[in-house]
Design goal:
Blueprint (H helix, E strand, L loop, with lengths): L2 H16 L4 H4 L2 H16 L6 H5 L3 H9 L4 H7 L4 H7 L3 H4 L3 E5 L2 E4 H26 L2 H10 L4 H31 L13 H23 L16 H19 L2 H8 L2
Helix pairs in contact: 1-11, 3-9, 3-13, 5-9, 7-9, 10-11, 11-12
Amino acid sequence: MGKFENAIHEMCAIENQAGEDDFLNNIHALAKLFVTVLYVCMVTSFPKYNVTGLVGMIIYPLIIFNLGDIKFGKCIKRIRLILPLICIIGIFNPFFDRNVLLTMGGVKITGGEISMVTLMIKGILAVIAIYILIITTTIDRVCMALRKIHIPEIIVMIIQLIYRYINVLLKETKRIVEAYSLRAPDQKGINFKAWGSLPGQLLLRSIDRATDVHNSMSLRGYNFNNVRIRNYKLSSRDYVWMILWTLVIIAFRVYPVFEIVGGLFT
């Protein structure tokens, strides 16, 4: 299976898993969106040297992975392309902040090295939290949650259609690459001379396919305001979910819970 087939297969697998009928998926999208935004805000608000407190925030993805039977290995595999970009963010910190903050086994650890690790952990936890939202909530439910908090309809519509058209773009790219490889079977990769024309063809073909999809949706009476999602109104379970996670996340942000618990056994 080629790269594009893998990408299309992964998108379908994520959407199918998000549409499953289980406890975590049936939590209202607005409740999960609220918890995700709160978690990301709390994670990014940690001071740059507070690594121990930041590690305590792992409690949220750890519980959700077990509660929703989400595979950690598959999560890392799917976000592996983003992880190097996250790690690059703070890679220059050790060069600018050379103040020695602590010494472990004769090894001096500078503030830049600690802040670099802190930034990496923040980015990884934030991406994992967003992945959890995507893997447990369909794009339609996310869009309806955005409308419920009065995000402008045009913005929500653009988000929804962009997500839908990613699959169209991947399929058109797959067809173009396959056609090119059939015309140049002995050539490895795409010749640089074709780098200008192929993206142009991809753009034109994608626009044509997107126009066909839009016309088909319009002929079938598609209207964003007419879409109805099950469990649109928040239930008592959804409010309990938001309140419990709000208390847990704020508690782990304000208090060094792990240090307090560890101090009870020493």
